[in-house]
Design brief:
Lipocalin, 3 helices, 19% helix, elongated
Length: 208
């Protein structure tokens, strides 16, 4: 396996389990260093998610469905602009009924088999992490939903502040791109394209 794919796999493995030990922190660091192609350093600083809100919305002909999660985890490496994010599929709440949530987890996302959705990639626009301000950026990477991986290009903003980063983005994903099939009997209640909003606050973290 290429070293960069191994690195992304290591990052996702760690961020899916946020109670990191010192050993796990070192694995994250090692993975990020491999992606960047730098020589290993004993200390490294990355941005990690402190708080978040992820909302998805389906606006169909007969029904609008909204669900929300605050469990996004992830890292941004300011040295090379690489990132990795993960969210637990079962963490989403809202919907219009408990049965909808059950169908989301059991039938559409298959959360027991695919517990997380991940996004790994790179910020492709210039950003000065040392200079406070609002940056309009594009990120490009591999989105993995229900075991299906697809490259996505997403626009958003990053506010660089003295206390960290504020990330905001709105984008859409097609269910068909990720082999999520909606039964014909409910296709007027579930939109083929899902709108997603992500807001996250990240803080600078030193990894030893």
């Amino acid at each position: 396996m290429p070293h960069y794919l191994t690195s992304y796999a290591l990052i996702i493995m760690i961020i899916c389990f946020p109670k990191a030990t010192q050993l796990k922190s070192r694995i994250i660091l090692f993975a990020l260093v491999l992606i960047a192609g730098f020589v290993y350093a004993s200390v490294r600083q990355v941005y990690s998610v402190k708080s978040s809100k992820v909302i998805f919305k389906s606006v169909a002909e007969l029904e609008t469905i909204t669900a929300e999660s605050t469990t996004l985890t992830g890292l941004v490496d300011p040295t090379n602009k690489n990132f990795a994010f993960s969210i637990s599929n079962k963490s989403f709440d809202g919907f219009n009924s408990s049965l909808q949530k059950e169908h989301f987890n059991d039938n559409y996302i298959e959360s027991d088999k695919y517990p997380t959705t991940t996004f790994t990639g790179r910020i492709i626009d210039e950003i000065d992490f040392k200079k406070p301000g609002t940056y309009v950026i594009r990120v490009k990477g591999m989105f993995k939903v229900k075991g299906v991986t697809k490259e996505e290009l997403i626009k958003g903003t990053i506010d660089v502040t003295p206390s960290g980063l504020k990330l905001n983005t709105n984008f859409s994903l097609l269910l068909s791109d990720y082999e999520i099939r909606v039964p014909r009997i409910v296709n007027q209640k579930i939109a083929p394209e899902i709108k997603i909003t992500i807001q996250a606050n990240l803080v600078l973290t030193t990894i030893k």
